[in-house]
Amino acid sequence: MALKTEPFVLNMGPVHPSTHGVFRMRTTLDGEVVVDIEPIFGYLHRGVEKLAEQRTYTGIIPLTDRLDYISSMNNNLAYCLAVEKLAGIKVPERAEYLRVIMAELQRIAAFLIAVGAFLNDCGAFFTPFMYMFREREKIVDLLEMVSGQRLTYNYIRVGGVSQDIPEEFLPALRTFVAQMPGFIDEYDRLLMQNEILLARAKGVGILTREQAINCAASGPVLRASGVKWDIRQADPYSIYDRFEFDIPTGTVGDCYDRYRVRVAEMRQSLRIIQQAMTQLPPGPVKAAVPHLIRPPVGEAYAHLEAPKGELGFYLVSDNSIAPYRCHIRPPSLINLTALRDMVRGWKVADLIVIFGSIDITVGEIDR
Amino acid sequence: MEVGDIRPYIYPDIELDREEGQGIEDLKANSQPAIPDPDKWLDEELSQNILLTSADALINWGRRSSLWTAICFPACCAFEFIAANGPRFDLARFGMEILRASPRQADLMITAGTLTWKMAPNVQRIYNQMAEPKWVIAMGACGISGGIFASAPYAVVPGYNHIIPVDVYIPGCPPRPEALIYGIQMLQKKIAKRRNLTLGKD
Amino acid sequence: MTAVLSGKEIARQLTEKFPESIIESGQDYLVVKNESLLAVAAFLKDTPELNFDYLNFITAVDYYHYFEVVYRLSSLEHNHSLVLKTHCADRENPALPSVTGLWQGADFQEREIYDLMGINFEGHPNMKRIFLWEGFAGHPMRKDFR
Question: Do B8 and C133 touch (CB under 8 A)?
């Protein structure tokens, strides 16, 4: 006797322990199997683009900090690259190297949270998360030494960085770079062949290469699907063409591949920091930029490889002290376009794992 | 696993969206003045200024030493709260290690992030689901007054005290974990002064 | 480095295939008419030498008399990029064809433009507000909002 079933709609609401922030999904379930999913955003829509039209070019930098709040240095850098492209400002050498060091440190910190939260969703309740937070505190100490803030740094400015590094920064950075590979090895030893992680993440939520490119995915999500596309090498910004590093890619495009790509990229970031530390030249850290920047009429788009993906700023200027239009290309929102295809046919528990492996930040989606 | 034909977005939920939107507009219209802070505990009248009984002291000690937080983590302050829970600034030593998902088992709501009008009915619902006694800490500049986003009033609520009554305000953007711990200790001092067993008129 | 293709070059190729579709072409951008947007976009995507298979972003700018919708396309294989723009002069009921059939990544971005600017994209599978709630009056990113 065949059982007649009917799909029902379940709301995984904005207040939920496994959604990374205030994110809501309306899932249509057939029993335990997900048939359809409709993500609903907007619970953190703060109107950053509208606010940016009312603030000066330098005054927008604190707003950009709060977009993807776990990788603030990269947000600042993307915005400053766009303004420098628009206004034709040249950045001194020492500032370029400092920017690269801060951006890569921030990338490691963001990946630590991403991997920790992903393992949290897989069921390892908080233990790997606490381990990774221990390392993140070391990085946050380093970044606090240069900028004074723990989370939203406001350090990278138009024309360079806001102030030079103190003397204790480089020795502390050297100790950190020497210790960190040991910690990543510890995580690999504990997690890489872990049976539960393999059972929950291997083969789950496969995103094929064509789907990934069509959905305009970027960052580790795109690279795990086999596309070797990293903006630091494809369209180098700042001085990334002087450094040597690999681009880890995955083969299958499942959650396990995304996890592996993030861990491998942490090692590559350490490589970049080591090279930048040895090549750091003396000199000024900020170009002579007026307080109120008035770029000529025009538009510019600058993008960079943020930990979540391709973060870009599109600025339109009309020769006044505030931009006419500031649009932010959010990597998390565009990576989520692929969620529906990835999730259909899997169970609710797999939905959480797949969603965690895309790694979003709601502040960036909703802006 | 084979799933049959799917029409795009099976159930058009535009009606549900419209109801939600209407609820938000109503809440926005009714929440313009701020809810005054609960200040009954500041009562300086002599009749109330009697030493608490030892039963009261015991109950207050129990309540303030095991505050369980409800999850309400919109934005950036959430990461300072999680760092405060982390291995370096350990909140578990204050009895606050439990981050329960269910508000029915919680007695403290730390609002870590910007509140938007779209989220406001949900925060009010979570607050209503918490059982008495319950306290609210407004964390960060966004929680106190809307913060850096307050000048875009179409979307951001200017402070949590328009929606729920707030007990302790912690300034900062984001406040350091040490500041958060100081705020929690202030709340613990406030709880220590509560009168729980009232004989006669209150 | 990603080569930014010259708008004038592409315009020349396009006027052979689609006459009357280009309004203006500059050093690194190309403006087409609304009606020929889908045809031009499909041509840019399917031609093997151009192969623009990656849509970087879509956004809209409010220039008081008209809306300008900007698309940035990239090719991962050839590593070149192009900016495609179109104008929308109607302020009461602006409408444009949707490119979600070509690039699925346009899904949420077009909903965002509808929500914040008010431009309707015909052919979109789920055209409704994304960041603000149903029943919100107005479109915030317009220059004349409040």
Answer: no
Q: Read off the amino acid at residue B123.
A: V
Q: B114 — contact with chain A (CB < 8 Å)? A: yes
Cα separation, A235 vs A232, in Å, equals 6
Which region holds residue B58: left if phi is over 0, alpha if psi is between -120 and 50, else beta? alpha
Name the residue type at position A278: T
* Residue C111 identity (one-letter amino acid): R
Q: What backbone phi and psi angles, to 5 degrees, belong to C118?
A: 95, 10
Q: Which two tokens stand for residue A8?
A: 């029902």
Q: What is the 3-state secondary structure (H, E, C) of B164-176?
A: CCCCEEECCCCCC
What's the CA gap between A213 and A334, in Å, rounded? 11
Cβ-based contacts of A48 with chain B (< 8 Å): 149
CB A356 within 8 A of CB A122: yes
Q: pLDDT tens for residues A37-60? A: 888 888 888 888 888 888 899 889
Contact assignment for C79 to A234 by CB distance below 8 Å: yes
Query: For residue range A237-274, what is the model confidence (pLDDT) as tens digits?
Result: 888 888 888 899 888 888 999 999 999 999 999 999 99
Report d(CA B49, CA B65) in Å as an integer: 23
Cβ contact A232:A88 at 8 Å: no
B13/A38 CB distance under 8 A:
yes
Give the number of beta-carbon pairs within 8 Å between A and C.
77
Strand A325-329 relative to strand A309-317, pairing? antiparallel
Contact A352, A12 (CB under 8 A): no
Question: Residue type at C120?
Answer: N
> Residue B85 corresponds to which tokens in the numbers above?
């829970």
Which among B18, B118, B154 is the nearest to C140, CB-wise?
B154
Beta strands in B6-133 (DSSP E): 69-70, 99-100, 108-112
Q: Which ipTM did the prediction report?
A: 0.90
Contact B117, A35 (CB under 8 A): no
Which contacts of A60-66 are long-range, i.e. CB under 8 A and separated by 24 or more positions?
Answer: A60/A323, A60/A326, A61/A154, A61/A156, A61/A157, A61/A158, A62/A152, A62/A154, A62/B148, A63/B148, A64/A313, A64/A328, A65/A152, A65/A153, A65/A154, A66/A152, A66/A363, A66/B75, A66/B76, A66/B148
Band (pLDDT 50/70/90 cuts) for residue B4 is very low
Cα(B181)–Cα(B67) distance, integer angstroms: 13
Compute CA B47 distance to the chain's CA centroid, rounded to the nearest angstrom.
31
Q: Which residue of B has its CA nearest to A110?
A: B79
Q: Which residues pair with A238 in a beta bridge?
A: none
Nearest CA among A218, A259, A236, A221 for reference residue A111: A259
Q: Which secondary structure element, helix H or strand E, spans residue C109, and what is its range? A: helix C106-117
Phi/psi region, residue A215 (left: phi>0; alpha: psi -120 to 50; beta: rest), is alpha
**Predicted TM-score of the model (pTM):** 0.90
The answer to whether the beta carbons of residues B55 and B198 sit under 8 Å apart is no
* Closest residue in chain B to residue C146, using alpha carbons only: B154
Phi, psi of C140 (to 5 degrees): -65, -35
Give CA–CA dist B105/B98, Å, rounded: 10
Residue B40: Cβ-neighbour burial (10 angstroms; 0-12, 13-18, 19+): exposed
